[in-house]
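Sat 14:20. Reprocessing the chain from the morning session after the first attempt stalled halfway. Input below, unchanged.
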Amino acid sequence: MVNQDFLEKVEPYEKWRPLTYATCFLHSTVQERKKFGPIGFSMPYEFNSSDLEASLLYMEKHFTQCALTNRKYEWEAMQKMCCSIQYG
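Finished this time. Tokens:
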């Protein structure tokens, strides 16, 4: 899913690449916590690649819109959308 083309898709690269890595790391952590059942999460949910894909797509669109409109990146909005809303 994440390859060299994907990492070079959005500029500025120095912000996009670490953010992509952090999101993938979050997804892998959530995937591993599933193994612990009710200790890991209070409700069963099958996290899959579509959760990661939706998070990366949202961040890609946010980066693109900010670049086009010359706005600052809203880090709190991206954190809220990916961590709280997408991964609960």
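The chain has one domain: 4-86.
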